Amino acid sequence: MAATSPFVSPPKLTSIKALAAEFPALTSIPPVYNFQTVPNIIEAFSEADDESIPTVDFSLLTSSNPEERSKVIQDLAKACQDWGFFMVTNHGLPESMMKAMIEACRAFFDLPEEEKQEFEGKHVLDPIRCGTSFNVSVDKVLFWRDFVKFFMHPNFHAPTKPSCLSEIALEFSKRVGQVAREITRGISESLGLELDYIDEALDLENGLQILIANLYPPCPQPELAMGLPPHSDHSLVTLLMQNEIGGLQVQHQGKWINVNPIPNSIVANIGDQIEILSNGKYKSVLHRAVVNSKDTRTSIAIFHGPAPDAVVSPASKLVDSVSNPPAYKAIKYKEYLELQQSHNLDWKSALERIRLYDIE
Ligand SMILES: O=C(O)CCC(=O)C(=O)O
Ligand SMILES: [Fe+2]
């Protein structure tokens, strides 16, 4: 009898939600979801600690008081340099809007499987796409995660089902986009650049805003599966909200730290484009999503990036040909997206492909 390979896909892969629906009768995960079969996986699975991540008071970013403004720019600089992850407080997004958005995405995942399949895009730049894992054509082991992804800016797209989703998402997109834009301006200033430097250099009027909703159903063997493996985001800045179930972990000084959900808060993180632009001064941060055996977790990550045709390179003011030469090749944002999508979602491998030399 032929030995079964752990890398054989299940016959017809629809969603992890459909598979998890067989739980509790399903007592073990199919081998294709078992991450322990991957060499050198130990670090990716190591235990996480509890520690608080920094907070940034968003209301101070728009303050007309120069002292408050300079204090929050310092907080932002410290949070970006030490952690690359922070909680955004006083962001002004109504709690009811955040809840409605999470519920509307949840209702999308609850649609019959055939209806969701209408939105199965193929290419990374398709404006609406749902699926499972990350990219089933390149993933060797599958992630315990379903997703729906849609581009909300510069042109607004959203699935037409469930019927409430598009209307809620339109208003949400504007509000969350304003928060991200203000954070980006603060980051620009905190790097010693003009307030509008990033806006202008990367044409943020036409910047991509991509929403990814993630669903992580209960898993019978959570210690063997991964919701999302360690990765960094391709964006400038990602804003994330989640239901009350934890699972996000961030790497800090070589350890994994739980980012426990705080009601009505937004988690922000630095993505690869800020690492490139700052020539490595601010690093995009590794994070992962773990799963559990009891509750379904939902998260919504909103990626804010440059315009697709904008060329991202280290800011000239932050490099110097002798002591601090550019550490990354210049690349169009849309090419970077294709680079990330065409390989495994794997640590910081996309950034490593354009890195010119190792930086501290
Ligand atoms: O679900 C989470 O908490 C993390 C989501 C995430 O990292 C992503 O979508 O890139
Ligand atoms: Fe992420």
Structure summarized in a few sentences:
Helix content is 28%, strand content 20%. The chain is of the alpha+beta class and 360 residues long. A hairpin with a 2-residue loop joins strand 9 (248-252) and strand 10 (255-258).
Count of discrete domains: 1
Described by strand count, sense and barrel closure, the largest sheet is: 8 strands, mixed
Query: What is the first-to-last residue Cα distance?
Result: 52 Å
What's the overall geometry?
globular
Number of strands: 15
Order of helices and strands: HHEEHHEHHEEHHEEEEEEHEEEEHH
Computed Rg: 20 Å
- Helix share bin: 25-40%
Tell me which ligands are bound.
Answer: 2-oxoglutaric acid, fe (ii) ion
Q: Spans with pLDDT under 50 lasting ≥5 residues?
A: 1-11
Q: Helix count, per DSSP?
A: 11
GO molecular function: dioxygenase activity; metal ion binding
Family: Belongs to the iron/ascorbate-dependent oxidoreductase family.
Domain Fe2OG dioxygenase: 206-306
Protein name: Oxoglutarate/iron-dependent dioxygenase
What labels would you give this structure?
360 residues; alpha+beta; Jelly Rolls; eight-stranded mixed beta sheet; 11 helices; binds 2-oxoglutaric acid; binds fe (ii) ion
Describe this structure in words.
This protein has 360 residues and is α+β, with helices and mostly antiparallel strands. It has one domain: Jelly Rolls (Sandwich), CATH 2.60.120. Helix content is 28%, strand content 20%. It has helices spanning 16-20, 42-45, 58-61, 66-82, 95-109, 113-117, 165-190, 197-201, 272-277, 333-341, 349-354, and strands at residues 48-50, 55-57, 85-89, 128-132, 146-153, 209-216, 228-231, 237-242, 248-252, 255-258, 266-270, 287-289, 297-304, 311-312, 331-332. Strands 2-3-11-8-13-6-5-4 form an eight-stranded mixed β-sheet. The protein has a five-stranded mixed β-sheet with strand order 1-10-9-12-7, with no helix packed on it. Strand 9 (248-252) and strand 10 form a beta hairpin. It is globular. Residues 1-11 have low confidence and may be disordered. The structure holds 2-oxoglutaric acid and fe (ii) ion. This is Oxoglutarate/iron-dependent dioxygenase. One of its GO terms (molecular function) is metal ion binding. Pfam families: 2OG-FeII_Oxy, DIOX_N. It comes from Corchorus olitorius.
